[in-house]
Amino acid sequence: MKIIAATAHTACAEGQKDQIFLANDADPRTLSLDGITRIDLHFPKFTDGRAYSQAFLLRRRLGYTGEIRATGDVLIDQLVQMQRSGFTVAVLREGVDASAAQRQFDRFQGFYQGDAVHVEPHFAETENSAAYAAELSLQDSA
Q1: Cα–Cα distance between 51 and 25 in angstroms, integer?
Q2: Helix (H, G, I), strand (E, B) or coil at 39
């Protein structure tokens, strides 16, 4: 995950056709993702997690492969969950030290369960992974 300090972030310009800002109460399933390379999802408060659901929907349900950027009240302790939900870039809120972000990722070397980015749980990475992936695909299409 790429980490950007608040002072280095450039918001989506109005009228720019390849980037969009999505309010956290908007439904990403209503978007046309053709030609979109970056989607900014906003956290108005760190306690408001609706953007996690939006990122997950964009990655898993809609198959979006472009940049998903977390903006707003983004704290270091949220970064790992953001990455697992499908975010690729996080803009830390003003006053948060970006150099401490890597330590957060170093604390968690791996996860037993799957997520938006790595669909298979750890136990399915063995010889049964193809059968498990097929089962997940059937569930996602239902």
Answers
A1: 8
A2: strand
SS3 94: coil
Q: Are 100 and 76 in contact (CB under 8 A)?
A: yes
Tell me the pLDDT tens digit for each residue of 53-98.
Answer: 999 999 988 999 999 999 999 988 899 889 989 999 999 988 888 7
Burial of 106 (0-12, 13-18, 19+ CB in 10 A): exposed
Question: In this structure, what token pair is assigned to residue 44?
Answer: 């108005």
Q: What is the reported pTM?
A: 0.77
Tokens of 139: 């569930």
Residue 6 backbone dihedrals phi, psi, to 5 degrees: -55, -35
For residue 102, what are the CA distances in angstroms to 21, 94, 99, 134? 26, 18, 7, 34
